[in-house]
Amino acid sequence: MASLAIQGMQWGDEGKGKVTDFYASKAQVVVRSQGGNNAGHTIVHHGKKFALRLIPSGIFSPEVVNILADGTVINPSAFIEELEGLEKEGIASYHLLVSSRAQVLMPYHIDLDHASELVLAKSKIGTTGRGIGPCYADKAARLNIRMGDLLEKEYLKERLDEILPLKNKELASYGLKTYTKEELLDYLMKASEKIAPLITDTSSYLNKALAEGKKVLFEGAQGAMLCLDHGTYPYVTSSSPLASGIPLECGIPNEAVKDVLGIMKAYTTRVGEGPFPSEIQSDLAQLIRDRGHEYGTVTKRPRRIGWLDAAQLKYVKMISGVKYIALMLLDVLSCTDEIKICTGYLLDGKKIDYMPSSLAAYLRVKPVFETMPSWKEDISNIKNYADLPLNARNYISRVEELTNTQVVLISVGPDKDQTIIRKDIF
Ligand code: GDP
Ligand code: IMO
Ligand code: MG
User: In 3D, which of 76, 208, 95 has the Cα closest to residue 149?
Assistant: First the structure.
């Protein structure tokens, strides 16, 4: 079984889309296992920029079978809009399968996402507003419709009868518009005209593909620090971006997920609220934001910018078993006079080299930095590791030392060919 899991190591937007697209031409199957259209994965295909949200980044490789697996939450209209957008751009020959077990993200999930953020006010999470939290909450409460239900109209009607009174009560408690069964049924039936042919038992499909020795690429969404269990709770998403979740989210055995490639930026970004100890407060943040085009793919919000946090990366390696690292956006750091790395924290005056598990403590930590010399050369056209400036190579070596992990891929620009490969892993 040859498989590779692509996992974000920070707070998302590490460049997972680019890396997935990069390896997709070597894969037979590309899988999104969790999350929904809160993800925004940027791919530059034949010089044109695409922002994928739900559709896996293997879609540009015509031979690849792309799968939205059991653990995903799917907004049918957003899915259709994205697919039709790609078709309009000439991406017409593709293979795409949607799990019958994936959850349907309903219009009221979006309403509830906005409403709870409004009520939380100052303490809001800063969600993407796509209804992700309410949809996963309803999954746990066993109150969702699943994609397979779109193929069973009579059952779907029964489910709406069961679910809708509860959801309407909740909507009314926020003073929101309620829904009728007829309007939701009509909406879902219209959507299913396009989606129905794609819906299948993707767990069975994947197990067969793996047994046949097909190469499978698991495209992570979000990043480890947004994990519901292991991230900076409550400032997290509502699913797990860790590679260890993939077997469960896809209905495949544990051993099917072989190697984990951790994706990290050469610095750190975060969208939304929550602690960020290595955040840069000076004008340099705006300089990096501009050079790295650090504005949210989904919400266009300016991303918060910070230095690399080695304590955080060590923690992520510990909880998720990252085997290799892809270091992204190294070119952006050419604008700096020096580079800092957060190697640990001061917690109540005491030096620690780990991430505290309690948010209250994590909010109190002060970063401890080490400083390294930077480089000014434009590195965005460099193809070989040896041609990188010495200080860039020293920075990469320091990242490897601090994380105890080999950097196998270095990205120096958004294009596929702006990629330096140090080791073949897939
Ligand atoms: P994802 O969510 O992990 O797929 O990442 P996003 O697509 O949300 O954000 C990454 C951004 O960085 C996108 O705008 C990419 O086009 C861009 N990008 C990826 N790799 C590089 C790189 O090495 N250098 C630069 N300058 N931009 C990059
Ligand atoms: P990709 O796959 C960056 C963040 C939101 C917010 C928190 C909860 O592009 O890396 P949600 O809408 O999921 O309930 O929001 O999680 N978030 C992301 N941040 N990249 C993402 O995905 C994200 N998906 C969710 O900004 O802080
Ligand atoms: Mg993104």
Answer: 76
Q: Is the dihedral of CA 12, 109, 252, 41 positive or negative?
A: negative
When divided into structural domains, the chain yields a total of 3
The verdict on residue 426 lying in a domain is no
Between the CA of 13 and the centroid of ligand 1 the distance, in Å, is 7
pLDDT tens, residue by residue, 348-401: 999 999 999 999 999 999 999 999 999 999 999 999 999 999 999 999 999 999
**Antiparallel, parallel or unpaired: β 2-8 and 215-223:** parallel
Could you confirm whether 13 is annotated as catalytic? yes
Active site residue 230: no
Query: Domain limits at 173?
Result: 104-195
405 C-beta closer than 6 A to ligand 1:
no
Tracing tokens 């990469």 back to the chain, one arrives at: 396
SS3 4: strand
Residues 309 and 387 in one domain: yes
CATH number, domain of 78, equals 3.40.440.10
Same domain, 163 and 46: no
190 shares its domain with 206: no
Burial track 298-308 (b if 16+ CB lie within 10 A, e otherwise): beeeebbbbbb
